[in-house]
Amino acid sequence: MEDFQHQLLIVTGALICFSALLKCIRFMKYTFPHVWSALPQAFFRSLGEWAVVTGAGDGLGKAYSFELAKRGLNIVMISRTLEKLQRVANEIEQATGQKVKVIQADFTRNSVYKNIEKDLEGLEIGVLVNNVGMLHNPLPCRFLNAPDVDENLVNCNIISVTKVCTVCVKSKGLILNLSSGLGTFPCPLYTIYSASKAFICTFSKALQAEYKEKGIIIQVVAPYGISTPMTMHQKPGLITKTAEEFVSESLHYVTFGDEIFGCLAHELLVIASDNL
Ligand SMILES: NC(=O)c1ccc[n+]([C@@H]2O[C@H](COP(=O)([O-])OP(=O)(O)OC[C@H]3O[C@@H](n4cnc5c(N)ncnc54)[C@H](OP(=O)(O)O)[C@@H]3O)[C@@H](O)[C@H]2O)c1
């Protein structure tokens, strides 16, 4: 009996050390991405000529559009408000010299995909960022007290991801699906948002398993706080990143596996909360 207890303690200790080692390795990867897995300068451009970004008029989508253009891709920006799209498209073209095409679409409506497919026809798409998403309410609230926007939210947060993937998953390339830290656990007071983001995590990981062999990288990005219109431009700080900081950092990690939190600060937040 004593012998068994002794063996059990050794195995438990070994498992704890192994799990700590895995966390350290993960932490090192995020701290020194250039050493660990430096992406060649031309990595993004080598995937194809165009990047498609949904919800591109503001916040993270705007930042993804800018960053991918800086990395040599032409951009298709798809979003709701045409004037905003056109203004950002001009800024990107002037700053980077890349071509930018805009498509106006409201993803709460499921009638938009025929038009999107037609507009994307013939483009060599290398990168897709399924970024569009909405909250049920800007502030946390109980399910029954929230405005009745369930159908819109499901269309915008879930159906858009599956539909745009259907249009764009063809051959090799990179697909980034924006989930949320709040989708990695059942988050009360954000119930339907949290559930919709959990769908994105599961969908992306299963899709990656299906299409890895074809050379398609599918990664789910699950950030915590970022200062954007969605978070009412929360003041940036140690944890809350600006959209530009977050996107430029997270693009270093696109080959780091099928799920990332997107920046070192959010990775550390997850490690710390796992150990509470
Ligand atoms: N910000 C955060 O802290 C945070 C954290 C975790 C995950 N996320 C996720 O990251 C993604 C981007 O978030 P964000 O903070 O950048 O969002 P945002 O500030 O609300 O910006 C979203 C962009 O998407 C567009 N959009 C919203 N609803 C749309 C619809 N129904 N059809 C077409 N376009 C629509 C908006 O269009 P208009 O220009 O017309 O307003 C805007 O350009 C979302 O999926 C969100 O869930 C964000």
TrEMBL record:
Subcellular location: Endoplasmic reticulum
Annotated keywords: Lipid biosynthesis, Lipid metabolism, NADP, Oxidoreductase, Steroid biosynthesis
Single Gene Ontology BP annotation: steroid biosynthetic process
GO CC field: endoplasmic reticulum; endoplasmic reticulum membrane
Alphabetized GO MF terms: testosterone dehydrogenase (NADP+) activity
Entries under Gene3D superfamilies matching the protein: NAD(P)-binding Rossmann-like Domain (3.40.50.720)
Keyword Ribosomal protein belongs to the record: no
Superkingdom as given in the UniProt entry: Eukaryota
PANTHER family, sorted: 17-BETA-HYDROXYSTEROID DEHYDROGENASE TYPE 3, RH59310P
Similarity comment: family membership: Belongs to the short-chain dehydrogenases/reductases (SDR) family.
The protein's name: Hydroxysteroid 17-beta dehydrogenase 3
Species of origin: Gallus gallus (Chicken)
Gene (name only): HSD17B3
